[in-house]
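Posted in: Structural Biology > Protein-Ligand Complexes

Title: Requesting predicted complex, adenosine-5'-triphosphate in pocket

I'd be grateful if someone could produce the 3D structure tokens for the following input. Sequence and ligand are given below.
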Amino acid sequence: MASAISIQNVSKTFHVSGKTIPALSNVSLDIEQGAFVSLLGPSGCGKSTLLRVIGDLLDSDEGSVQVLGKEARKSRQDRDYGMVFQQPGLMDWRTIQKNVELPMQVAGVGKAERAARAKDLLQLVRLEGFEGHRPRQLSGGMQQRAAIARALSFEPKILLMDEPLGALDEMNREHMQRELLRIWRETGTTIVFVTHSVSEAAFLSTEVVVMSPRPGRIATRIPIDLPFPRTDETRSTEKFYEVETQVREALHAVLEPTVTGV
Ligand SMILES: Nc1ncnc2c1ncn2[C@@H]1O[C@H](COP(=O)(O)OP(=O)(O)OP(=O)(O)O)[C@@H](O)[C@H]1O
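-- Reply #1 --
Done. Output follows.
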């Protein structure tokens, strides 16, 4: 399958108050179109930095990122990306419908068209009936679904998600994982997803990329061959347990390199 994202030898160092923080070192990664790739690794290993470099929110010092065969900057200008962060970032003085319409409004999409598209997107994330609500009147999971709807406004080919479910309680989180898989399968978008959760990464992904601590490097790539559709039953299967264990062991290996010999 064609490559959606091609990262070649990317390095990034931050300089803060005379200190040098090597965040990424020589990262190379190819992500296929339609993949759901999770970046997993210890805190500070550069997951968010890598996501921001992919999304052209941050320049790398070295290396290159090609998205759909173009420079990342061109892809951002072409609105190939949708982005979702841990906080939904909705504006409380606008209704849910108007929040979802905002990027389209900024881009100059006409009133009737953006209203119709926002309505469709809210249907996709199952928020029909809440169009006129304010964000504070919705649960955290519902707000995050609205943020996902907003991120999908330009039918992005690439969805970059930085711990989007991290602030949710366990039940809501599992529900949103199922919803996210449904949306991914319905839209066919390529997803790069940052998480701290082994089981979340195993449940959602077609591939888990484990990163090692500072400076961030790709330590292991684990293809996840659990069949689709993945449901709550999937979580209690032997196969899921095996996959989860494999991911957990890979994470432990980067946390305890001297013990494991990695
Ligand atoms: N804008 C910045 N200025 C200076 N240092 C930064 C900046 N952004 C990230 N860093 C540093 O780069 C390293 C990687 O940070 P990053 O946020 O990418 O890690 P992460 O793996 O996403 O962490 P976490 O899992 O805790 O969110 C950290 O040491 C962090 O302090």
